[in-house]
Amino acid sequence: MKLWGGRFSKNTALEAEDFNASISVDSRLYFHDIEGSKAHAIMLGKCGIIDTDEAAKIINALEEIRLELESGSANLNNDAEDIHMNIEKLLIEKIGETGKKLHTARSRNDQVALDLRMYLRDEIHKILELLTELEVLLLDKSKEHIGTVMPGYTHMQKAQPVTLGHHFMAYFEMFKRDMGRFKDCLKRMNVMPLGSCALAGTTYPIDRKMVADILRFSDISQNSIDAVSDRDFAIEFIGCCTLGMMHLSRFCEELIIWNTGEFGYIEMDDAYSTGSSIMPQKKNPDIAELIRGKTGRVYGDLFNLLTIMKGLPLSYNKDLQEDKEPVFDAGDTMKSCISVFIPMLAAMTVNKENILNNLKGGFLNATDLADYLVNKGLPFRDAHAAAGEMVKYCIANNKELIQLSMDEFRSFSCLIEDEVYEFLKPEVCLSRRDTEGGPSDQRVKEAILHGREFINHFAETINK
């Protein structure tokens, strides 16, 4: 008989039982369900709702069940529907009538809300650890390539010279924002819903703050209806994952492009590449492509849960059973992608000579030529027009700006002097870009220093 079956005169139809069960999905919540139940039992005992000896007996039995589940000696099954009822059933089998007292002043509605919040707290910490590892690698890579001059692009067209170190630091900033988002998500997630029961609280003299303290929640929910029906925290978690995956995908897209024969900026390590079943020469960046592809499934997870929630009346509805698959998938996918991205990035080879050769063409120093004329007193719009005319001339004559003779330069502007040749060298162009956040060597070094300070401070604050 079901633990809830008192008012029913028929057994659940087999096909309905299989359809209704969620144990195949939510079994991974066993640890958090047991920890929440132990805290609930402690509170029930201390508040005199059950005997303290009974509370101790329940707690000890729950710990035994945890060990049995982890060793595989305890079985979970569809008959008990979900992880919550499975554990309660195992508890009653182990200690009898006393086990039936655990569910006093509690519903599965607030129980699952508790478990999911606790689970996602731990997931966020795991993701933050991986993001921290990635950020440290990016800082190291940026330091290594402070002086590696490369073309910067807009519209996938060569634009101005930057450095690979500066480029890597752009991704550092993206993942830094991701870390901040997950940390901020954690604040709203760390609210304890237990004690809300089905939707209207309880008549028992419980102490919700005691449970919150035991389970390390910073606050308790303030509305029992909202507490059992809210999944904002889960949607926000997946939202954080979607942005993080988008950043990983953009990075992978660039690595894939740079890895092509047409660019040749980098070469993926053999350990993170695959071959072709028909073309023996192929070395494909499949790992980067898979990360890019898996981004779509995390986007799908977000829309999945948003769609589930969009029409739900208050308070709890069975639809909410469908919240776990997208939440679990988003977290699992992001963790697996970061975990393989880190060693892939660490192992890739940077072909500095190819990058240097690709500085030619595209007139990366055209803006600097305009700036040169501005420094000589020409208004920017006039300087822009003159530089554009010189670019057009170079295209027609198959030349670079720096290859123009002084006579050719002065045919466009009598303000140009011999120092223009030094002024237009890529490394000199970079050295002048010395504003905060710019690509000069000194500014990139500062950014790396600030990045290391951020990582150290973040580790201190997240562990408090």
How far apart the termini lie comes to 46 Å
Mean pLDDT: 95
> How many β-strand stretches?
6
Domain tally: 3
**Order of neighbouring strands in the sheet with most strands:** 1-2
Largest pleated sheet: 2 strands, antiparallel
What is the approximate shape?
elongated
Cα Rg = 30 Å
Descriptive report:
- There is one protein chain.
- This protein is mainly alpha-helical.
- The chain has three domains: 5-104, Fumarase C, Chain B, domain 1, CATH 1.10.275; 120-147 and 155-199 and 225-357, Fumarase C, Chain A, domain 2 (Up-down Bundle); 366-462, Fumarase/aspartase (C-terminal domain) (Ribonucleotide Reductase Protein R1, domain 1).
- Helices cover 62% and strands 5% of the residues.
- It contains 19 helices and six strands.
- It has helices spanning 14-20, 23-26, 30-46, 52-71, 83-95, 108-144, 164-189, 208-214, 224-229, 232-258, 286-309, 324-347, 352-357, 366-375, 380-397, 406-412, 420-423, 426-432, 441-462; strands at 149-154, 157-163, 191-192, 219-220, 266-267, 349-350.
- The strands form three sheets. It has a two-stranded antiparallel sheet with strand order 1-2.
- Helix 8 (208-214) links the parallel strand 3 and strand 4 (219-220).
- Helix 3 (30-46) runs antiparallel to helix 4.
- The longest helix is centred in the first third of the chain and has 37 residues, at 108-144.
- The radius of gyration is 30 Å and the shape is elongated.
